[in-house]
Amino acid sequence: MVGRITFDLDVLRSFVTGVELGGFARAADRLGRSTSAVSAQIRKLEEQAGTPIFRKAGRGLALTEAGETMLAYARRLLDLNDEAATALRGMAAEGWLRVGVQEDFGESLLPAALGRFARAHPRVRIEARVGRNADLLERVAAGQLDFALAWDDGTPAPHKTEVATLPVRWIGPRDGAALPCAEGDPLPLVAYDDGCWFRGVGTAALDRAGRSWRVALTSASLSGLWAGVGAGLGLAVRTPAGLGPGLRPLEEGEGGLPPLPSIALAIHRKEAELDPAAERLIAIVTDGVRDLL
User: Cα(189)–Cα(166) distance, rounded to whole angstroms?
Assistant: First the structure.
């Protein structure tokens, strides 16, 4: 019987770091090892795998199909290892964390992130708030939230770290015509009942294009917007993240609609550096965003 293969986590970490940094010399610098030592680890990994995990691509290297598979499993093994280490260190951690998450990510991201954190830090109590961007940023600035995952609409904030940049799109019902109006009629919009960045960029784009518009439905919540769009009352302006069922982002130029800009998503901290438990939750939330996107 062929013996079981036990992969070395240090080797896997060198492999993942080298792929992410685009070179094993950089990985060696990051990990505090010599380049020759990291190269030896990669040779060992290929020997254990029993198949090449790299192929030549111009002057550099690229992953083979086996290498892509190895990378996915290596990341999962390292995540599990790091989570176990964090859990053991965090068993004694206590305290209170106050977290804010933008409405778009309340259902798609928050439950898994909080569950993963709670398993590692069972004694840390969490108060989570899902809300509108302006409210979250105000609460972070006032120290009422330790951090918030919120859109970066250009509002000055001293302690923000960009997580991702998302395209802004026209949002319509999954089934039905792209435009919920006859040609030449004002375009009906579904928007928040007060000014917001998304509504502003949408109406500004329509004005620049010489396209008339009207507000067909207003709501104080994102779920209200999605209900209006799903009912065919009008289009909304949003990113494709966290769309409700029965909705879709329109393709660029679809229906003759003008293009829209992108917007950054960021972690907004109340202070430049938070305690280790808060920073660990920020890392989990950031990972969740990247997986979601």
Answer: 21
